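By way of example, we now present a protein record of this kind:
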Amino acid sequence: MSLGILIVDDEPHLPHQFARYLRKHGYDVYTASDGEAGLRELQKNTIDLVLLDLRLPRQSGLEVLKRIREIEPELPVVILTAYGNVQTAVEAMKLGASDYLLKGFDLEELLLVVKRALETSAMSRELRQLKRERSDNYHFNHVVGHSDRMRAVFELVAKIARSDATVLITGESGTGKEVVAHAIHEQSARASGPFHPLNCAAIAQNLLESELFGYEQ
Protein backbone atom coordinates (compact mmCIF):
# COMPACT_ATOMS: atom_id res chain seq x y z
CA MET A 1 0.00 0.00 0.00
CA SER A 2 1.37 3.41 -1.02
CA LEU A 3 2.03 6.04 1.60
CA GLY A 4 0.01 9.24 1.37
CA ILE A 5 1.57 12.70 1.23
CA LEU A 6 -0.36 15.96 1.49
CA ILE A 7 1.17 19.15 0.03
CA VAL A 8 -0.33 22.41 1.35
CA ASP A 9 1.06 25.32 -0.69
CA ASP A 10 -0.64 28.21 -2.48
CA GLU A 11 1.95 28.64 -5.23
CA PRO A 12 0.47 27.86 -8.68
CA HIS A 13 3.10 25.47 -10.04
CA LEU A 14 5.48 24.11 -7.37
CA PRO A 15 3.02 21.81 -5.55
CA HIS A 16 2.11 20.07 -8.80
CA GLN A 17 5.79 19.69 -9.69
CA PHE A 18 6.44 18.15 -6.26
CA ALA A 19 3.39 15.93 -6.61
CA ARG A 20 4.43 14.56 -10.02
CA TYR A 21 7.92 13.79 -8.76
CA LEU A 22 6.73 12.06 -5.59
CA ARG A 23 4.12 10.03 -7.47
CA LYS A 24 6.90 8.72 -9.73
CA HIS A 25 8.49 7.35 -6.56
CA GLY A 26 5.36 5.48 -5.54
CA TYR A 27 3.59 7.88 -3.19
CA ASP A 28 -0.08 8.86 -3.23
CA VAL A 29 -0.01 12.66 -3.30
CA TYR A 30 -2.79 15.16 -2.53
CA THR A 31 -2.55 18.95 -2.85
CA ALA A 32 -4.31 21.90 -1.22
CA SER A 33 -3.85 25.63 -1.74
CA ASP A 34 -4.75 26.78 1.79
CA GLY A 35 -5.01 25.51 5.34
CA GLU A 36 -8.73 24.75 5.42
CA ALA A 37 -8.53 22.76 2.18
CA GLY A 38 -5.52 20.92 3.57
CA LEU A 39 -7.35 19.99 6.76
CA ARG A 40 -10.29 18.70 4.70
CA GLU A 41 -7.91 16.51 2.67
CA LEU A 42 -6.36 15.28 5.89
CA GLN A 43 -9.75 14.12 7.14
CA LYS A 44 -10.80 12.57 3.82
CA ASN A 45 -7.66 10.61 2.96
CA THR A 46 -5.03 8.45 4.63
CA ILE A 47 -2.12 10.85 5.03
CA ASP A 48 1.28 9.71 6.30
CA LEU A 49 3.16 13.00 5.89
CA VAL A 50 2.36 16.66 5.29
CA LEU A 51 4.50 19.14 3.34
CA LEU A 52 3.31 22.49 4.67
CA ASP A 53 4.14 25.97 3.38
CA LEU A 54 4.52 28.63 6.09
CA ARG A 55 2.97 31.44 4.04
CA LEU A 56 -0.63 30.61 3.22
CA PRO A 57 -3.71 32.75 2.59
CA ARG A 58 -6.11 33.44 5.50
CA GLN A 59 -4.05 31.55 8.11
CA SER A 60 -0.35 30.91 8.48
CA GLY A 61 1.36 27.57 8.17
CA LEU A 62 2.10 27.65 11.90
CA GLU A 63 -1.62 28.00 12.64
CA VAL A 64 -2.34 25.09 10.31
CA LEU A 65 0.39 23.07 12.02
CA LYS A 66 -1.33 23.62 15.38
CA ARG A 67 -4.60 22.37 13.91
CA ILE A 68 -2.88 19.32 12.44
CA ARG A 69 -1.38 18.54 15.84
CA GLU A 70 -4.88 18.63 17.36
CA ILE A 71 -6.19 16.18 14.75
CA GLU A 72 -3.13 13.93 14.25
CA PRO A 73 -0.60 14.48 17.07
CA GLU A 74 1.94 12.01 15.67
CA LEU A 75 1.67 12.88 11.96
CA PRO A 76 5.05 14.03 10.56
CA VAL A 77 4.96 17.54 9.07
CA VAL A 78 7.78 19.06 7.00
CA ILE A 79 7.71 22.87 6.80
CA LEU A 80 8.40 24.51 3.41
CA THR A 81 9.25 28.19 3.27
CA ALA A 82 10.96 30.79 1.14
CA TYR A 83 11.39 33.00 4.19
CA GLY A 84 13.79 30.96 6.23
CA ASN A 85 14.90 32.30 9.57
CA VAL A 86 16.01 30.58 12.72
CA GLN A 87 13.19 31.94 14.86
CA THR A 88 10.46 30.61 12.58
CA ALA A 89 12.23 27.27 12.22
CA VAL A 90 12.55 26.90 15.99
CA GLU A 91 8.90 27.82 16.49
CA ALA A 92 7.82 25.26 13.89
CA MET A 93 9.95 22.56 15.51
CA LYS A 94 8.53 23.39 18.93
CA LEU A 95 5.06 22.89 17.50
CA GLY A 96 6.08 19.44 16.30
CA ALA A 97 7.42 19.89 12.77
CA SER A 98 9.61 16.97 11.70
CA ASP A 99 11.90 18.96 9.43
CA TYR A 100 12.34 22.31 7.70
CA LEU A 101 13.16 23.04 4.04
CA LEU A 102 13.96 26.40 2.45
CA LYS A 103 12.43 26.72 -1.00
CA GLY A 104 15.03 26.51 -3.69
CA PHE A 105 15.83 22.92 -2.73
CA ASP A 106 16.05 20.38 -5.54
CA LEU A 107 13.68 17.45 -5.96
CA GLU A 108 16.25 14.91 -4.81
CA GLU A 109 16.64 16.80 -1.54
CA LEU A 110 12.85 16.85 -1.16
CA LEU A 111 12.68 13.09 -1.67
CA LEU A 112 15.47 12.55 0.86
CA VAL A 113 13.68 14.62 3.51
CA VAL A 114 10.37 12.87 2.81
CA LYS A 115 11.96 9.42 3.17
CA ARG A 116 13.76 10.43 6.33
CA ALA A 117 10.61 11.86 7.94
CA LEU A 118 8.57 8.78 7.04
CA GLU A 119 11.26 6.41 8.32
CA THR A 120 11.54 8.34 11.59
CA SER A 121 7.76 8.28 11.98
CA ALA A 122 7.65 4.52 11.33
CA MET A 123 10.39 3.93 13.91
CA SER A 124 8.52 6.03 16.47
CA ARG A 125 5.33 4.03 15.89
CA GLU A 126 7.26 0.78 16.29
CA LEU A 127 8.85 1.98 19.53
CA ARG A 128 5.45 3.05 20.90
CA GLN A 129 4.04 -0.36 19.99
CA LEU A 130 6.93 -2.14 21.69
CA LYS A 131 6.44 0.04 24.75
CA ARG A 132 2.71 -0.79 24.82
CA GLU A 133 3.47 -4.49 24.51
CA ARG A 134 6.05 -4.24 27.27
CA SER A 135 3.57 -2.35 29.43
CA ASP A 136 0.89 -4.97 28.77
CA ASN A 137 3.30 -7.73 29.75
CA TYR A 138 3.90 -6.11 33.11
CA HIS A 139 0.49 -4.57 33.56
CA PHE A 140 -1.18 -7.39 35.46
CA ASN A 141 -0.62 -10.36 33.14
CA HIS A 142 2.13 -11.71 35.40
CA VAL A 143 0.12 -11.21 38.59
CA VAL A 144 -2.12 -14.24 38.99
CA GLY A 145 -5.37 -13.97 40.92
CA HIS A 146 -9.09 -13.39 40.46
CA SER A 147 -10.25 -13.01 44.04
CA ASP A 148 -11.73 -9.84 45.48
CA ARG A 149 -8.50 -9.24 47.38
CA MET A 150 -6.39 -9.49 44.19
CA ARG A 151 -8.74 -7.16 42.33
CA ALA A 152 -8.27 -4.71 45.19
CA VAL A 153 -4.49 -5.04 44.73
CA PHE A 154 -4.86 -4.31 40.99
CA GLU A 155 -6.92 -1.21 41.71
CA LEU A 156 -4.41 -0.05 44.30
CA VAL A 157 -1.49 -0.53 41.88
CA ALA A 158 -3.29 1.55 39.22
CA LYS A 159 -3.95 4.30 41.75
CA ILE A 160 -0.40 4.29 43.11
CA ALA A 161 1.09 4.45 39.60
CA ARG A 162 -0.49 7.88 39.06
CA SER A 163 1.26 9.22 42.17
CA ASP A 164 4.82 10.45 42.74
CA ALA A 165 4.80 9.03 46.28
CA THR A 166 7.45 6.57 47.48
CA VAL A 167 5.98 3.06 47.71
CA LEU A 168 6.88 0.25 50.10
CA ILE A 169 5.73 -3.23 49.00
CA THR A 170 5.83 -5.93 51.68
CA GLY A 171 5.18 -9.66 51.53
CA GLU A 172 6.73 -13.04 51.91
CA SER A 173 9.31 -14.34 49.46
CA GLY A 174 7.74 -15.50 46.20
CA THR A 175 4.52 -13.47 46.49
CA GLY A 176 5.38 -11.25 43.50
CA LYS A 177 6.64 -8.04 45.08
CA GLU A 178 9.01 -7.31 42.20
CA VAL A 179 6.30 -8.04 39.61
CA VAL A 180 3.98 -5.58 41.37
CA ALA A 181 6.80 -3.01 41.52
CA HIS A 182 7.38 -3.45 37.79
CA ALA A 183 3.65 -3.07 37.08
CA ILE A 184 3.62 0.20 39.05
CA HIS A 185 6.67 1.45 37.14
CA GLU A 186 5.23 0.56 33.73
CA GLN A 187 2.00 2.45 34.42
CA SER A 188 3.70 5.49 35.90
CA ALA A 189 4.99 8.71 34.33
CA ARG A 190 8.50 7.22 34.65
CA ALA A 191 7.73 4.26 32.38
CA SER A 192 10.16 5.48 29.72
CA GLY A 193 13.00 5.39 32.26
CA PRO A 194 14.94 2.35 33.51
CA PHE A 195 13.71 -0.11 36.14
CA HIS A 196 16.54 -1.52 38.29
CA PRO A 197 15.63 -4.25 40.79
CA LEU A 198 18.21 -4.79 43.54
CA ASN A 199 18.19 -7.71 45.97
CA CYS A 200 19.41 -5.99 49.13
CA ALA A 201 19.24 -9.23 51.14
CA ALA A 202 21.92 -10.73 48.92
CA ILE A 203 24.38 -7.90 49.67
CA ALA A 204 26.50 -7.94 52.80
CA GLN A 205 25.37 -5.36 55.35
CA ASN A 206 28.70 -3.53 55.33
CA LEU A 207 28.57 -3.24 51.51
CA LEU A 208 24.93 -2.17 51.07
CA GLU A 209 25.58 1.55 51.47
CA SER A 210 28.51 1.44 49.02
CA GLU A 211 26.45 -0.59 46.52
CA LEU A 212 23.63 1.94 46.60
CA PHE A 213 25.52 5.23 46.86
CA GLY A 214 29.07 4.48 45.69
CA TYR A 215 32.38 4.01 47.44
CA GLU A 216 33.62 7.59 47.38
CA GLN A 217 32.38 10.02 50.00
Summary: The CA atoms of residues 19 and 29 lie 6 Å apart. The radius of gyration is 25 Å. The chain has a mean pLDDT of 82. The longest strand covers residues 4-8.
